[in-house]
């Protein structure tokens, strides 16, 4: 029997209402995620539902991993076979089985942003956009928006006279065709194609409906229309769908998430049970008070009364620093003293910011102080050039039609196949309508290539063919990759082409990490294959994790992350930094989108990550584009009642203020003098 006594009565109602639709709409830290885990345990242990019939969808891979671990603690191996994943991983799972019905091959590649941009550039080139008027990023963003709205190339129409939108409309069909010719799909396809598969093939839909008899979705307020449709289709048969969320934490409106979905859930599912949770178990009274006050300034919301039994706790510290350097040194000093004095560990501390660029001074100071940290976001491991190059080899071997990867490695490491040759081969392959990989093997038929180069192309083709066969045979994957990298001279190439040997060494180490990661994957999974490994790597990218998780790191480290990635998490000690106008609320929201409410929700998310203590910081000045600029306090600071806050000016800020007072006094006297004639 799984005992539900750790839950309060409302939570228990939610956890045990297993048949029929259920909505849990509740504020931060009220135990929504806990309800999902207990509900799964209840289904397995008390209702003897086979784990295969359970699907739980989380917002990030990290959240999925945490939930999986939690389930292991609660039900152990009896949970084996259930699906706990993100929407994207769920899409992969479904597509791997039946994507052939949509005309793709089973070993499809998943393209990351840089691969996607490569295809967009190619499509733009074909339109003779010789002036390079269009920005590939913004074209891709628009196409992605269309996909999230489930618009096919045929259905996508311009909404106005925006030239770049018109170009996106024009290019979308070509982009999609290019993807298909590479036997590749992008992240948005993971949802869009899955929806199409389920919609067009009733037998496929029926299969998954029968499998996922109990469905749970965490962070439901941030699902976009295509994700919503996917879940609705899967749940249509059994209607055992439980969604939990908080409209006050909807922070992905800019990516097409639609908060109305959670507010309309009751209407979409007749007879839906609604449970509100009001007790917050996460934060102290002061922290919760501050959060409640801030969010009450949003008008369009479902008002929730969130309370806590824990006492007020320490006041919120508000630190005013002279500039961003002082902000960072102060925060790092405080982290050091807190960890020393209050017996908290580095792993209990998080620094949260609005934009990833803010992390730099904090990283520098942490490094300077010798404090371990994990950076979530920014330049990620799998985005690094050498890592992408080495992975491109593996991607090509797993899917020779993946032309973006093939083009990446054709002359890496350098083997004397130049740009013009590559262009010629590419051209020829298109004219002949054959894949690039095949064209390489038929270089003899292509005009205008010298005999010497032809031999090199042929050798490259033979090498790849040999490796494809080699990898298809049984054997230890990491060993094979190690041998492959040696054979092609990856290390030598890095040492040869990079002047700074320390940089080269770091890059070589990163490549080693790829092999290590594969070895780890192999030892943890009995069914490890190269495509599965690549899939894991690509999906991991999505969370923007650099390196590894805190736990995997095997050491105790401070977490640095953006407010967006902090959703759903909690830390005993939180530093919320850069509370200035044009940062939070972000400039874009003030001047372009007029979406201050969404920024306020971000502020709410930030405050409510803290369990025991919250520190907020702001600067009087900040370097921007290399120049010191005066900064103004965020409007959200005024929304926190004064009595909750302990205001502290650090040295630099005080000095700056004195200067300012002097200057003001000077101005005053000058003015007086003027007045006196
Ligand atoms: P968020 O909106 O930030 O995602 P949430 O509503 O999902 O928050 P949880 O993360 O599930 O909240 O819970 C917050 C904290 O409160 C967790 O540490 C959890 O273990 C604890 N908690 C939840 N319910 C209870 C309870 N009934 N008794 C004790 N602790 C609880
Ligand atoms: Mg949660």
From TrEMBL:
Q: Name one GO cellular component term.
A: cytosol
Q: Where is the UvrD-like helicase ATP-binding domain?
A: 5-284
Catalytic activity line of the entry: ATP + H2O = ADP + phosphate + H(+); Couples ATP hydrolysis with the unwinding of duplex DNA by translocating in the 3'-5' direction
Stored InterPro entries: DExx_box_DNA_helicase_dom_sf, DNA_helicase_UvrD-like_C, DNA_helicase_UvrD/REP, P-loop_NTPase, UvrD-like_ATP-bd
EC number annotated for this UniProt entry = 5.6.2.4
Q: Which domain of life is it from?
A: Bacteria
Biological process according to GO: recombinational repair
What CDD domains would the database entry show? Answer: DEXQc_UvrD, SF1_C_UvrD
The record's keywords, sorted A to Z, are:
ATP-binding, Helicase, Hydrolase, Isomerase, Nucleotide-binding
Q: Which residues form the UvrD-like helicase C-terminal domain?
A: 285-568
Q: What class of enzyme is it?
A: isomerase
Which residues are ATP-binding? 26-33
Could you tell me one molecular function GO term of this UniProt entry?
Answer: DNA binding
Give the matching Pfam families.
UvrD-helicase, UvrD_C
Spans traversing the lipid bilayer:
none
What family does this belong to? Answer: Belongs to the helicase family. UvrD subfamily.
Q: What name does this protein carry?
A: DNA 3'-5' helicase
What organism does the record attribute this protein to? Geoanaerobacter pelophilus
Q: Taxonomic lineage of this organism?
A: Bacteria, Pseudomonadati, Thermodesulfobacteriota, Desulfuromonadia, Geobacterales
